[in-house]
Task: structure prediction
Amino acid sequence: MQSEISSFINYIIVEQGLTYNTQAAYRRDLEKFAEFLRLKEVPVGAVSRAVVQEFLVELQARKLNARTVARALVTLRSFFQFLVFDRDFPQNPCLNLEGPKASKTLPKVLSVTQVDQLLSKPDITNIYGLRDKAMLEILYATGLRVSELTSLELQAVNSELGYVTCVGKGGKARVVPVGRSALSALESYLRHGRLGLLKGEASNWLFLNRHGAKLTRQGFWKIIVDYGRKAQIGIPLKPHLLRHSFATHLLQRGADLRSVQMMLGHSDISTTQIYTHILKERLRGIYEQHHPRS
Result:
């Protein structure tokens, strides 16, 4: 099955332009399925609907959450559809097969006060603090994914017109407005911080690590977790938390859902609608706390 997996992964890279993280997730799912087939002594050409169902049951028995199991089914459905068209596979055993319903959990968000506390923590008297301040400000001002933030190049920011151009999932580019506070922090970093990080070398990446190379997602993750502790946020701080807060705070102040969808880079507006549920939950909480007959 390794040959089929390699061909499929190459297909989603070349034809579909899926992100590295999505490619990795697909590969992990398929490797699990390949191991399952090996233990059951079932060749890939003999996979039936019943075999796929048995695999999904086994994943659930491993205590994997419903979302993970549902994603594995999506992976297998795409994989076998590829085999049908590319390898003359007789049929897709996953068609009309339903996976477990993943419960929709509302994402956590920071309050405006908590965001202010976080943004005040970088020490802007040194080059690392200037960089971190700029990154946090840009992240909250734009709602970028952390991979989009760390992949920004110098020409991606138009300070004069106040926008940033990023490349999101599937290689799709989008333009997102940037506020004055973020642009000011970015200007300070470019003038007084970035040159110190370059170490005399040339680089087109906007945000650099201490060696003058591109700052990685993992590197920024460690940075934001550390500032979360310093700000005493009270909940584990992850980069995506600022993205959720960006969307929620915009909607709280009257932004329309379609505009927020475009800024976040969601292909489906139903993904963006989860933030309206957050607002409803908060309104309900305020009502129950303050209404005399709640």
Notes: The domain at 112-289 is CATH 1.10.443.10 (hpI Integrase; Chain A). The beta strands are 157-158, 163-167, 173-177.
